[in-house]
Fold these 2 entries.
Entry 1:
Amino acid sequence: MIKTRIAPSPTGNLHIGTARTALFNYLYAKNQKGIFAIRIEDTDIVRSTQESEQDIIEGLEWLGLIPDEGVSIKGEIGELGPYRQSQRAHIYKPYLEQLIQSGDAFWCNLSEQEIDILKQQADDKSEQFVLRSPYRDKKIKPSQESVLRFKVSDTKISFEDKIKGFIEFDTSLLGDFVIAKNLDYPLYNFVVVIDDELMQITHIIRGDDHIANTPKQILINQALGFTRKNFAHLPLILAPDKSKMSKRFGATSIREYREQGYLPEALINFLALLGWNEGNDREYYTLGEIIEKFSLKRVQKSGAIFNIQKLDSINSHYIKQLSPEKQIELGTQYLIQNRFDIKKWNERQLKSIIQLEINRIKKFADIGKEISFLWKQPEYNPDILAFKAMTKEDSITSLEWSYQLVYTIEESQFDTIEFIIKEAIQKDNKQMGEILWPLRVALSGLEKSPSPFEIIAIIGKEETLKRIQYAQNILKK
RNA sequence: GGCCUUGUCGUCUAGUCCGGUCAGGACGCCAGGUUUUCAUCCUGGUAACACGGGUUCGAAUCCCGUCGAGGCUACCA
């Protein structure tokens, strides 16, 4: 049985890159009928927060990446916990002692200044600096200043990366690295090895910024006699300037996208296609479909730029796919968020407003941007009431015709108002434009807007007649 | 600097393993159609094999070199 894990550090909200790494771990685990686990890497007590952890696990579940094991919104799942590193200090200690015992790790009293001097000396001789601590064979008693380093011997470490292929490192270029500040404070490269072993992780799928850490972890893994792990290093998601996605780039947290009204299925689809494809032209997949088709072999090797326009396009596709009920639910929610007074409308009207917006928005936060005219009589320049070469008098006549027509139509017939009006236009030998343009502008006050039929159905007969009269009045001025 | 990774339209990518269709699709952009207008939708167009050698009848694909990009180089993760 294979097992993957995502091991986020709770030092900020769920990052888009973390989400994608989680997604690929989830996809691989599910495709292989294995287990997807979440472990919280909060060894850095200073930067880790409870809120970040909460945001991360909530965000992952919102995306549908529900863990089989580890930390979840319902608490911890599984027998191999605790799944927060901050609660595992007692577990790490014996392994640290084992490494000291075996001579693979040693206490080192080198100060920062002393290391700087060694660096300088190497520099002066224009040699490559590799730290070989003078304490590596000394077995000193640790003091307050001591740190525990791994004794690196000269060898070659290689592994077959499931995405990048064969990768080899020469450890003679690797310094004696620190694995713990003291017996109670082990560092990342060490704990990750212990946890992955104890939690029986079989496949480590992570960002390719971790490639350089891999030989260190393999060294520790071997010294402890642990089982060999499979590695797969994902290419990074890049900002438009090809740099690592950071604060400089707009929205980097899943929370921000969620709040803007991006759908989880859109985000999943987008993130999956950012670095993976089935080998054909298909571009829309549900999470289940990606699971079925997923393979690490088809993961891209180079970084991908995060293109918000593509996300928008995918999101608007999924918005249109939503059931009418869901569209109304989310639409209403965002209308309220955007401070529109929805109490003005009954259920039917609200439904119409949202339906009118569905084709126009890329994300739900866009809702309501250009429809404030529905709420109140708009102010506008009367010149725009004229269709093409119409004179003021033509516009007034046109509006009068519309007024008389709407006056005769019952609100109960508003479902078919488009048909009624168009039929009347034909019958009276009018042009569509000469009637519909002035009418629409009278109702919306805009040169570009939804159709008059949709607006009438929402604002109702009384308001429609009022606005037509208003338009006639400002034309007469 | 060193080590590692990586290079196909502006962007995401198919094709590369196993050389041989005008290098395909999507997003964007442009044009046309539909519509009173906008949006939606439909049709079409624009645009790429980083560069230089080599192997070959033939190279995006194989080999060598160059250049570019990114990551790491912490007592962070």
Entry 2:
Amino acid sequence: MADMDTGLGDPGESAPATKQAVYETAIRLFARNGFAATGMRELSREAGVNLATVNYFYGSKKGLLKAILEDYFTGLEAVLRANLEGDDAPAEKLERLVAALARYFESVSDKLIIALTELPHDDPDITEFKAARFRQLSGLFQNVLGGPASPIPASFLVPAIVSMTASRFLLLPVLRKALPEGAPGLDFAGYPKRIARLFVHGFSGLAEGAGDGADG
Amino acid sequence: MADMDTGLGDPGESAPATKQAVYETAIRLFARNGFAATGMRELSREAGVNLATVNYFYGSKKGLLKAILEDYFTGLEAVLRANLEGDDAPAEKLERLVAALARYFESVSDKLIIALTELPHDDPDITEFKAARFRQLSGLFQNVLGGPASPIPASFLVPAIVSMTASRFLLLPVLRKALPEGAPGLDFAGYPKRIARLFVHGFSGLAEGAGDGADG
DNA sequence: GCAACATACAAACGTTCGTTTAATAACTTG
DNA sequence: CAAGTTATTAAACGAACGTTTGTATGTTGC
């Protein structure tokens, strides 16, 4: 049975080279072609392993997807935990968090694309898994940013932070084809700080004017 | 050959009821299960039409996807055109545009989900189609918001506006499962105005502090 | 009535899908 | 070295895939 049921995502260094090759190739292909459109034969051929190797290590194609998603969520949780604690002022904490999120998303952009593009889909094996992870992660926000007295509900704030920081990477493959080489905005250099400031300014401005009928 | 090659998206009222049924069912299933994971037999069964009907009207499964995407982009273009002209101050125009975008996305949320989840994928038949549409739409922004003198490059601004406004709807299916019924933030009522204000505050704050080393 | 055309249908096409099996090779451990 | 575990392989399974074909049915204009 090997270690297919450890529940872990990224195979450790002790894992066989074939398992690592399957994992990395899957991330690349799932992000580029989509999970459902990627076949086991294409995957095993690109990874340079036998067809049966994939199911040997991951149980099934869906098990491989779950391992990738689990890995992504685990990394996301680490970033959130690291940047939600501390004694900073809320605005500074928010800015630091968003910038850290942007950097994390960039470092795992293929995994992020997989997670985002599979997000709205209704696969019964994956649905509850995603919802549980989301519940857990959004719970981390509860007692830190804003608090119950905040005029902005956390159920607006959390998706806004995550999705607006992440979604750039969803458009990036199209941007690369649509924009001329070297266009400003394509490079990642200034993005974390820019998106963090955009959000912290927007959030503070939003909180100030929250009472004047924003629900119309 | 019927009208499968008209290039239009949404079939008109003159189109047969079967064609309309195929189109609407496809939007629902593609958004819920993903394009590649939705089979022609499942689609035709759910639509209550014969299997061959789909290819009769749309040429192929991909032709059906293209019709949906074309329809989505055409509607998006109309919203952008309607809200990018006028003599308003930039800030007011920006706020109005973002709110209108949010309302449009909500009105076609299934089509939006399809467009977003297919965005990063590399299907050779679809890739250039998406890039061309994006080039056209981002061109609409060029001479309106900010202008060449703006410290924020349009290639940062445009994806930011579109993706941060749209991506909420990508998370919404998960939010509905993860959050308790009737949680604040799940309802759409306040969203357009809120996201518009968040962005316009964020943008102005970003422009003010643009010179102090935001590229670190 | 009869072309001409648009729509609808059942059946079959060849291909690819994810998964399983059984056998063997390679490595680890007592 | 023997025993047992881990890893790899070729081959095959039934099921589902997107598409095509040939034919029926209905409609329109002559």
